[in-house]
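Hello everyone,

My group is preparing for a crystallization screen and wants a predicted model to guide construct design. The compound we'll soak is S-adenosylmethionine. Before spending weeks at the bench, it would help to have a computed complex in hand. I've included the protein sequence and the ligand's SMILES below. Output in structure-token form would be ideal because that's what our pipeline reads.
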Amino acid sequence: MSCIVIYCRAGFENDAAAEITHHASNLGVGGYVKTKPNSALVAYHCYSHDEAEYLIKKIPFKDMIFARQWFIGTQVAKMPIDDRVGSICEVAKSFPLCGELRVETCDTNEGKELSKLCKKISNPLAKALEGQETLLRQQVKNRPTLHVLFIASDTVYVGYSFSFNNSPLYMGIPRLRYPKDAPSRSTLKLDEAFMMFVPEDEREERVASGMKAVDLGACPGGWTYQLVRRGMFVQAIDNGPMDQALMDSGQVKHYREDGFKFRPERRNISWLVCDMVEKPSRVTELMIDWAVNGFAKELIFNLKLPMKKRFDTVYENLQRIRDELHEYGVKYNLQAKHLYHDREEVTVHLQVLRVPQNVFS
Ligand SMILES: C[S@@+](CC[C@H](N)C(=O)[O-])C[C@H]1O[C@@H](n2cnc3c(N)ncnc32)[C@H](O)[C@@H]1O
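Reply:
Good plan to model first. Here are the tokens for the complex, ready for your pipeline.
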């Protein structure tokens, strides 16, 4: 068992492959990728089980931008249709004792067709795995998670991930409800970003009612909607029209200004969010300026992806942020993710922890 199985959005297999190759080579581990276009799946083959396990323990999962989920596993093909449970159990005998079973598919149309089978097989499989002491009867959070990923009715990848370094979500996908009164579907991106980037036990304090926020490129107001919903007061910057119901909330001030020139009058902004469609290097430069000058405590922004070299573009821009913040002595946390609701963009979260006073005084 020497393969790292990675789930991603269909069409982003090369980016997920480049990413795992990058991190593995940084840790001095070699391997090769097997993937197919639009399969939403990448398999990174290492030369030994120990090396593969080392990688999924050592590479922080939160650093994997294009991966929704991963596990260490192996492929079981051509299973007899009348005994798929037996075939899977046989391979799983060598696994550590797991605390949860997830029977999953890839996020593709072919994958959707297999979801009925996943549901049907889950119970008998769980029982058989419990019987051979590969799976605990009660779900336990701090044990490894056992994954069975169906890629055809007779073929699975089967393996496990570590609960301290994986996505806690089934298929790595959040289930968010689209609010009917939201002005645009992209509202779900910011909802997901808060969920992804701010730990649940810190959300009440960090994403709180009464806070002040700025939304650059706000129209028609999908992101502002999420800020207003959380009780914040928002300065919405855009030349376009804002949703009237949001304006009627009394929590939004609309400024028809250039988002690249706008700066707040006071350094009292808790959240800056930015969804302007612009070159990633230009947005990066703007975000560095906000961070270094202490204009906002936390920033969430999108980097639109180019057609080619998407992985390189994202990593170069993140590196530039790290380099410049380091140069100015700013203390920060930086994360990025190709969210489920993102398409041709990734979402970045920058938490500014400390800015030396002499930078802006
Ligand atoms: C993808 S839309 C934002 C959607 C918004 N986040 C929502 O959820 O409804 C991008 C917006 O950025 C605005 N925009 C682009 N360049 C801008 C600039 N330089 N200054 C202000 N707004 C800009 C556009 O007018 C457009 O409304």
